[in-house]
Design goal:
Blueprint: E1 3-4, E2 9-10, E3 15-16, E4 21-22, E5 27-28, E6 33-34, E7 39-40, E8 45-46, E9 49-52, E10 57-58, E11 63-66, E12 79-82, E13 87-88, E14 93-95, E15 104-107, E16 112-113, E17 118-119, E18 124-125, E19 130-131, E20 136-137, E21 142-143, E22 148-149, E23 154-155, E24 160-161, E25 166-167, E26 172-173, E27 181-184, E28 189-193, H1 195-200, H2 205-218, H3 225-235, H4 240-251
């Protein structure tokens, strides 16, 4: 049975799933869709054409589905789609898309968004990610599955963060981050692979060793980057993880990558 506090404001037209809990002073707009078992602790604002998947828990003062912070937005009916079983803590903001960016901001499932995290318009965020306090995405950013975003980090618009990557606290990311990579600093540079994250996620020693060998070759001093990329692709053609890095780079080879600051 759903539980709705008498001080909550639920607009006509809002669609509520089964067994939702809406706490004191929450506001739910007319185009909002809540899945089964969603919990709004208190003082949550849900606006716009926003859908929230089953089992999400949202803490006080989060604002989800507000219009994008983009001067080109003229009130068009864009959307925010949030997956299932996310834990969204205090003061998190996630905004709808823009017409020019496809009209949809998409957020995956089974993730933790800590206090003050921000997902801007037209972003696509994968599953099982962690955004530490005040981690911030500019517009049109793509974040893969299992990414960890450190506290106070920021990602420039249109950047890509590959799966299993780690962005260190306070890092300012202005270029693409390869899958399994670990970046730090302002502006962020590669410090190696996200070895701690890979071990925590159960990657085998063989898989990690292959990634380390491919990383050393890819970012060595000899030859051009394109030549080294082709060498990695040839040597590790049968390795799924290494080829994910190769395919990530090849998919948009004109975009700048975060590179190591020192020799590897």
């Amino acid at each position: 049975m759903s539980q709705i506090h008498p001080t909550a404001l639920i607009a006509p037209g809002a669609a509520l799933g089964a067994d939702v809990e809406i706490g004191p002073f929450c506001t739910v707009g007319p185009k909002v869709r809540l899945g089964d078992g969603v919990r709004l602790i208190s003082h949550v604002v849900l606006d716009g054409a926003t859908s929230i998947g089953a089992g999400c828990t949202i803490y006080p003062f989060a604002v989800l589905g507000a219009p994008p912070q983009h001067l080109a937005h003229k009130g068009e009916d864009t959307r925010l789609e949030i997956g299932e079983r996310n834990l969204i803590r205090e003061h998190v903001t996630m905004q709808t898309g823009t017409v020019g960016g496809g009209g949809v901001t998409r957020v995956g499932s089974d993730s933790l968004y800590m206090v003050g995290a921000h997902v801007a318009h037209d972003c696509t965020v994968g599953d099982r990610v962690t955004f530490a306090n005040n981690a911030t995405l500019g517009g049109h950013v793509t974040v893969g599955d299992f990414v960890f975003m450190g506290g106070l980090c920021a990602v420039h618009q249109f950047s890509r963060i590959g799966r299993y990557a780690f962005v260190g606290g306070g890092g300012i990311v202005t270029k693409d981050v390869i899958p399994y990579g670990s970046v730090w600093g302002n502006h962020a540079h590669l410090e190696g692979l996200n070895l701690v994250g890979l071990k925590r996620r159960g990657f085998s020693r063989e898989a990690i060793n292959a990634l380390r060998a491919a990383y050393r070759l890819l970012f060595a001093d000899e030859g051009t980057f394109q030549e080294r990329l082709e060498d990695v692709a040839e040597i590790h053609a049968g390795n799924i993880e290494v080829m994910e890095i190769v395919d990530f780079i090849r998919s948009d080879n004109n975009r700048p990558l975060c590179l190591p600051e020192r020799e590897v």
